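A.,

Following up on our hallway conversation. Structure tokens first:
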């Protein structure tokens, strides 16, 4: 291959790449809509209304506004909805796809790089809304294997490559992505712009995303417009349905209903949740009521077990527990 050819095209072979998806997008839409409906008839109406403008479903029936069809999507494999959703929604655009209805699957080789990337974009969003702090933002980790023959490899110092990796502009990268799609290339492998030393991948064709598995839950905290860290809650395997959440790992105080909702996001997938209050000095009545009454009522299949409570915390928790019937 001539050294003057850009970009360099070559194979990629990555197992267990990582992608973090905001918690509200990581579950079935029907489950999310169920929280808004009072009965089955209302739920059915909401599902029909959502389907009318759902880009993924439009692609499945050959009505996608960007021309995506069934041949561009994947079916009959685990998490096909998650995969297809990434390609059917372009949103505001990203490094290698422009704003609009056609997206891509962005992932990283390691979790640290992925966290840095999602935290950057979350901070940018918060700044646009005048917010500097946000606690315990839930993200679901998905693993996937990416193997393909024709990827753009942006691992050189070519000026065109550097333009694609501009920290403040996606113009060159989006132009490259459009060109690669026209040539039916698989995607782009490139150095992370937000995490030096990390490697990112932008997959432009859904069938390349293989062996997708749902993994841990991460709670990301932003403080003063800076990534303040993340707490990992490992998903249970087939033999385990219990998880321990160490509250001391979360930034902030445990006083409000919003804090309780952030803490309990997606915990209803577990049969038992051990809430470890070690090093937690106090909790608010609203926090306790939201967690031990509201969440417990909405998630009857999940048992909350508080442990290692101080006398003050135990008093507040016991006072907030619903009375036993009978």
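Then the amino acids I'd put at each of the 326 positions:
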């Amino acid at each position: 291959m001539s050294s003057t050819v850009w970009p360099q095209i070559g194979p990629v072979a990555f197992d267990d790449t990582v992608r973090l998806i905001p918690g509200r997008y990581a579950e079935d839409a029907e489950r999310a809509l169920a929280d808004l409906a009072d009965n089955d008839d209302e739920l059915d109406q909401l599902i029909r209304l959502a389907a009318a403008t759902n880009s993924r479903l439009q692609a499945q029936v050959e009505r996608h506004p960007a021309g995506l069809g069934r041949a561009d999507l994947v079916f009959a494999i685990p998490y096909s909805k998650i995969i297809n959703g990434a390609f059917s929604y372009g949103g505001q655009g990203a490094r290698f796809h422009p704003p609009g209805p056609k997206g891509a699957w962005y992932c990283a080789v390691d979790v640290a790089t992925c966290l840095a990337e999602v935290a950057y974009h979350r901070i940018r969003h918060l700044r646009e809304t005048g917010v500097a702090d946000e606690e315990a933002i839930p993200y679901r980790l998905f693993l996937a294997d990416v193997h393909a023959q024709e990827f753009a490899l942006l691992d050189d110092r070519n000026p065109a490559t550097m333009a694609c990796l501009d920290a403040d502009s996606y113009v060159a990268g989006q132009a490259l992505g459009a060109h690669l799609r026209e040539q039916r290339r698989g995607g782009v492998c490139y150095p992370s712009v937000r995490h030096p030393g990390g490697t990112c991948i932008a997959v432009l064709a859904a069938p390349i995303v293989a062996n997708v598995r749902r993994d841990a839950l991460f709670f990301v905290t932003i403080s003063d417009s800076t990534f303040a860290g993340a707490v990992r809650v490992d998903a249970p395997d087939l033999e385990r349905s219990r998880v321990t959440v160490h509250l001391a790992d979360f930034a902030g105080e445990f006083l409000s209903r919003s804090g309780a909702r952030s803490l309990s996001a997606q915990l209803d997938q577990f049969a038992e949740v051990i809430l470890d209050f070690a090093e937690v000095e106090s909790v608010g009545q609203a926090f306790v009521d939201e967690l031990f009454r509201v969440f417990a009522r909405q998630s009857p299949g999940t048992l909350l077990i508080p442990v290692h409570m101080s006398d003050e915390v135990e008093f507040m928790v016991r006072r907030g527990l619903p009375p036993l019937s009978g």
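Residues 236-320 form a domain with the Transcription Regulator spoIIAA fold (CATH 3.30.750). Curious whether your intuition agrees with the design.

B.
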